[in-house]
């Protein structure tokens, strides 16, 4: 981090994965307007998340970070927001009830609108077009106009994030997340499945426990903890102009916070130690994440720890390993050992999605549930071997009945991929596959 860090000091560093905005003046105008708009979250909330993640770093809690690969401006409805929250609440209940640890719940939601791409352009029907970079930047529609980066989208992303967060706050504090409603979170297409039935049995047990507690005088009226949950937002801090414009100085501490979300992460493609993304996130007070792929070395991990969390604050830094099912134990163990021996209080999370993506015969990008679960098992095994705490999972999912990832208890085959392939970017687990994953992770946690 530069000695005189400022929200704009990233501008002196190489910034990869930034769109080629065609009109500088229009970009400046949009950023200027963003910088005058209210923050989406406030610093105290971000600090609360750091504290909660500190518990994870300490082996006393588990992180569930999940949501869309990319949110969409088009699929933006109250039901959609409710369903996305619902599946995370269901998974969290499965994990905490079965494994008996508190679950820190963080959505990839209310801001996850920008995507890094492996190529700047793609060929569509013989025509070379700019790649889709998320609705914050351009449209997925493969036309020259659709793919031209448009800074108005930065403002639309802000406003959609604000509305989404508003509804999420209402749901999690206003009664929807009340423990007595665990049955209601089970959606129709999920409840009819084997995973859904398993969930129903667990919900019955929770009901019974709640009745018992009520008989003892403990209910959600006397215990707000049973009535509401803490739910946090996160996204990849990719488009640095947007993040800078929403970075504000906390009046209480004088520290800078990126108020576009509670937690921000750095992607695998933007984690260069001297790069703009690391420079920017090193200076904000939020809890931050950094994706790490199979090519990273122990020294590079230690350098990231030193740059991003020099004061070794527990909960400040989550390293999200996305190694691939075959590589995970080999690649991860030396990194865990290095962090442990250097005494860095890392939250280690497993992203079992991005190292297991491939293109199916029909041309669809997909992932197999078996590989996803294998990477998670390898992640837990690595931690067992190194004596470190498997802190959490980072999952791309939706509660919808999509056919994007192969496998699962009610198996999805190659030929099914076209049926309901709805993602804007990477393939997501559907509601049943997500719930099944939660049960499997709970088993691993219990051991
Ligand atoms: C993502 O999380 O959608 C993503 C692009 O991940 P990664 O940076 O790990 O490739
Ligand atoms: Co993705």
Describe this structure in words.
With 447 residues, the chain is of the alpha/beta class. Helix content is 40%, strand content 13%. The protein is built from 14 helices and 14 strands. The chain has helices spanning 24-36, 43-57, 78-99, 144-147, 152-173, 188-191, 194-215, 224-227, 240-245, 276-282, 298-308, 328-342, 369-386, 431-446, and strands at residues 62-67, 103-108, 121-124, 127-130, 231-236, 247-249, 256-258, 263-266, 288-292, 317-321, 347-350, 358-359, 365-366, 392-396. Strands 1-2-5-8-9-10-11-14 form an eight-stranded parallel β-barrel, surrounded by seven helices. β6 (247-249) and β7 form a beta hairpin. The longest helix has 22 residues, at 78-99. The two termini are 40 Å apart. The model has no long low-confidence stretch (mean pLDDT 95). The structure holds phosphoenolpyruvate and cobalt (II) ion (CO).
Short characterization:
The protein has 447 residues and is an alpha/beta fold. It is built from 14 helices and 14 strands. The strands form 4 sheets. Strands 1-2-5-8-9-10-11-14 form an 8-stranded parallel β-barrel, surrounded by 7 helices. Strands 3-4 form a two-stranded antiparallel ribbon.
Helices, strands, pairings?
Blueprint lengths: L23 H13 L6 H15 L4 E6 L10 H22 L3 E6 L12 E4 L2 E4 L13 H4 L4 H22 L14 H4 L2 H22 L8 H4 L3 E6 L3 H6 L1 E3 L6 E3 L4 E4 L9 H7 L5 E5 L5 H11 L8 E5 L6 H15 L4 E4 L7 E2 L5 E2 L2 H18 L5 E5 L34 H16 L1
Bound molecules: phosphoenolpyruvate and cobalt (II) ion (CO).
What descriptive keywords fit this protein?
single chain, 447 residues, alpha/beta, eight-stranded parallel β-barrel, two-stranded antiparallel ribbon, 14 helices, globular, binds phosphoenolpyruvate, binds cobalt (II) ion
């Amino acid at each position: 981090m530069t000695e005189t860090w400022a929200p704009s000091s990233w501008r002196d560093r190489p910034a990869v994965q930034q769109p080629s905005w065609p009109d500088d003046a229009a970009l400046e105008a949009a950023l200027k307007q963003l910088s005058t708009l209210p923050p989406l979250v406030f610093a105290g909330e971000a600090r609360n998340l750091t504290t909660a993640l500190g518990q994870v770093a300490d082996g006393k809690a588990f992180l569930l970070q999940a949501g869309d690969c990319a949110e969409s401006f088009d699929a933006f409805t109250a039901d959609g927001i409710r369903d996305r929250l619902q599946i995370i609440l269901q998974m969290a209940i499965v994990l905490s009830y079965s494994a008996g640890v508190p679950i820190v719940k963080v959505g990839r939601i209310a801001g996850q609108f920008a995507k890094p791409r492996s190529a700047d352009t793609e060929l569509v029907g013989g025509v070379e077009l700019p790649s889709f970079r998320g609705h914050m930047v351009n449209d997925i529609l493969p036309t020259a106009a659709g793919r031209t980066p448009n800074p108005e989208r930065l403002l639309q992303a802000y406003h959609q994030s604000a509305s989404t967060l508003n509804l999420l706050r209402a749901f999690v504090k206003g009664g929807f997340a009340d423990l007595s409603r665990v049955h209601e979170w089970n959606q129709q297409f999920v409840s009819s499945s084997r995973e859904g039935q398993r969930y129903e049995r667990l919900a019955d047990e929770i009901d019974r426990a709640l009745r018992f507690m009520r008989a003892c005088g403990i209910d959600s009226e006397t215990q707000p903890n049973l009535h509401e949950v803490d739910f946090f937002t996160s996204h990849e801090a990719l488009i640095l102009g947007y993040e800078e414009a929403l970075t504000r100085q906390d009046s209480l501490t004088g520290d800078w916070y990126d108020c576009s979300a509670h937690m921000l992460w750095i992607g695998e493609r933007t984690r260069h130690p001297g790069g703009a993304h690391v420079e920017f996130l090193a200076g904000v007070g939020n809890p931050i994440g950094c994706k790490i792929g199979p090519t990273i070395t122990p020294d590079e991990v230690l350098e990231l720890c030193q740059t991003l969390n020099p004061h070794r604050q527990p909960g400040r830094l989550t390293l999200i390993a996305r190694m691939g099912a075959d590589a995970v134990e080999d690649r991860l163990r030396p990194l865990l050992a290095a962090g442990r021996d250097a005494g860095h209080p890392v939250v280690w999370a497993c992203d079992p999605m991005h190292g297991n993506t491939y293109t199916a015969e029909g041309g669809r990008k997909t992932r197999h549930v078996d590989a996803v679960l294998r990477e998670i098992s390898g992640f837990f095994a690595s931690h067992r071997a190194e004596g470190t705490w498997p802190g959490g999972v980072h999952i791309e999912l939706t509660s919808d009945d999509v056919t994007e990832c192969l496998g699962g208890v009610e198996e999805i085959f190659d030929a099914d991929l076209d049926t309901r392939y709805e993602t804007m970017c990477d393939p997501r687990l559907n509601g049943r596959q997500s719930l099944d994953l939660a049960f499997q992770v709970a088993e691993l946690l219990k051991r």
